[in-house]
Amino acid sequence: MLPTKTRQFFSPTILFALKSSLNRRILPGFRALQDGGLLLETPLSNSCTVRLLSTTGVSRQKDLKHFKAGAEKKDSVDNDHTRGNEIYRMPHPIWSEQEVNTVEITHQETKTKVDKIAYGCVQFLRIAFDIVSLYKVGKMTENKWLNRIIMLETVAGVPGMIAAMARHFDSLRKLTRDHGWIHTLLEEAENERMHLMTALELKQPGALFRGVILLAQGVFVNCFFVAYILSPRFCHRFVGYLEEEAVKTYTYCLKCIDDGTLPVWSTRPAPSLAINYWRLKEDAVMRDVILAIRADEAHHRVVNHTLSSIHLNEKNPFSPGQKKL
Ligand SMILES: [Fe+2]
Ligand SMILES: [Fe+2]
Q: What's the CA-to-centroid distance between 81 and ligand 2, angstroms?
C-alpha cells in the first residue's frame, strides 16, 4: 500500500497518466472497478473510498445507476441476507393471488405400462416415507412439517438437474440439438432448491438429519441418472406423479394452517428470501409461502407430465419462466 499522504497527493491528471502508462495493471492502493474505472483507496472523512477516475462514459454511468436502482427494487426487503442474488436466479413463475388459490389436486390417468410402473413407484415411495416420517401420526407440528419439507425438497431438486445434465451430455455425445428442454429442467431444479432454502430459513437440521439427507441423495441421484438414461419418458412421468403427491401434501399443510392445527404459519412472517423470490407482499406470512410453493409443484406436475408425453426431440413447449397450472 502507498502511504496515505502520497496517495492523497496524486491529482486526477497524474492518475490518468498512471493508468494510461500501466495499461491494465493495478497499483497497490488502487482498485480496478468492474466498469473499467480506477478507484483510489483513501480515508476521506467517513468514506472508505472515492472515485477519482473512470473510463466509464456519462451515458454508461447513467445505465449503471439505472441497473442498481432496478436491483434494489427487486430485492425490496432490507434484512434478506441473500439480497442481490436475484440476478443469478433463473426465470420462474410469479403467481397471482387468484392463481395460488385455484390450485387443485389432480391425477393423470395411467395409460401405458410405463405410466403404471411410474405411478406404482411413486405410491410405494410415498407410503414408505409417510410411515417412516410418522406423517399424520399425532399432531403435525411446525417442526414435523419443516422436517418433512426439508427432506422432500432435498430429493425434489434432483430430477431436474439430472435430466438437464443427461440431455446436455446427450446433445454433446450425439451431436444433436436439445430443443430447449435443458433450460426448463434447470429452472425446475433451482425452483425446488429455493423451496429448500426457504424451509432452512426456519430450521437448521442437526447432524443425524444431514446424514440421512446425504444417504438419500447418494442413492436417489444414482438411481435417477441410470433410470433417465434408460427411459426419460418414465422419469418425467415419475416426477409428474411425484408432483401430484407434493400438491396433495402442501394442500394438507394449508388445511392444517387453516383449521388451527398449525396456526403459527398463519401469522409467522415469511422469510425475506421467500418474499423476494416470489415477489410476495412485504407483510406476507408462511401461509402465503406455502401457497406459492404449492403452485410451483402444480406447475412442475404439468411440465413433467407434458415432457413425458411428447417426443424427446420435440420442441420444449414451455418458455423461460412460463406459468402453467
Ligand atoms: Fe418443491
Ligand atoms: Fe416440485
A: 25
Distance 105 CA to ligand 1 centre (A): 15
The DSSP secondary structure of 66-131, one letter per residue, reads HHHHHHHHHS--TT-TTTTGGGGSPP-----HHHHHT-----PPP-SHHHHHHHHHHHHHHHHHHH
Return the CATH fold of 111-308.
Answer: Ferritin (1.20.1260)
CA–CA separation, 177 and 179 (whole Å): 6
**What is this structure's pTM?**
0.76
Ligand whose nearest atom lies closest to the CA of 289? 1
State in Å: Cα 195 to ligand 1 middle. Answer: 5
In the chain, where the domains are located: 111-308
Give me the numbers of helices (H) and strands (E) for the chain, helices first please: 12, 3
Q: For 186-220, what is each residue's pLDDT tens digit?
A: 999 999 999 999 999 999 999 999 999 999 999 99
Q: How far is the CA of 181 from the centre of ligand 1 (A)?
A: 19
